């Protein structure tokens, strides 16, 4: 679909493609215009480029949207695990009430937002690579895909925690969940820098810096939790 009408003029009459009609029909219309073959060719190339760019931009926008909702789900999910682990160590009846509430919230968040966002992010991401396979030849994309693979492992770990914290809540500690909650932060920082800076980014030092930031975040979380205790 083309959001902006493309207007051609034939014998003083405006013809507008307001609904993104088939590009072949528009190409045929261009050939009927009383203009040189060179101009016809340029118009056709521009039209195809315009449609391809609009199509690519829509897929890219959807990919970004679901990346945001995926990370939002992961951030909030592990924060709920922190509260769930803390609730498991409280006294009754507060313990039962809180754990039941957190179980409901976790299940709804995980299956209604986090998993669907994860799947749609991957679908639109793969779609973008199909539309522009040249990305696969670039080193920054290789590193980005490595971080994405790590995020998928993190997602599967979250699935394991979701089941385990209901059955054996005392097996998980709030400090452990707080530290795990920082993992997507590190991955998010890494992916944003990789995508924005691309070839101008120093892969070795950049990756080491990102990993160092992650370690620092986890140390700070542990220190704050120890001080709180």
**Any low-confidence stretches, pLDDT <50, length ≥5?**
1-22
Radius of gyration: 25 Å
Briefly note the structural class of the backbone.
Answer: mainly alpha
Fraction of residues in helices?
over 70%
Shape: flat
What strand order characterises the main sheet?
1-2
Strand element count: 2
- The chain-level mean pLDDT equals 78
Helix/strand order, N-terminal first: EEHHHHHHH
For the terminal residues, how far apart are their CA atoms?
Answer: 57 Å
Oligomer: single chain
Main sheet overview: 2 strands, antiparallel
- Individual helix count: 7
- The total number of structural domains is 2
In short:
The protein has helices at 23-32, 37-87, 94-131, 139-167, 174-180, 183-197, 203-228; strands at 6-10, 13-17. The protein is mainly alpha-helical.
What features would you describe in this structure?
- It is flat and about 60 Å long.
- It has helices spanning 23-32, 37-87, 94-131, 139-167, 174-180, 183-197, 203-228; strands spanning 6-10, 13-17.
- A hairpin with a 2-residue loop joins strand 1 (6-10) and strand 2.
- 77% of the residues lie in helices and 4% in strands.
- By secondary structure, it is mainly alpha-helical.
- The protein is built from 7 helices and 2 strands.
- It folds into 2 domains: 6-49, no CATH class; 50-173 and 183-228, no CATH class.
- It has a two-stranded antiparallel sheet with strand order 1-2.
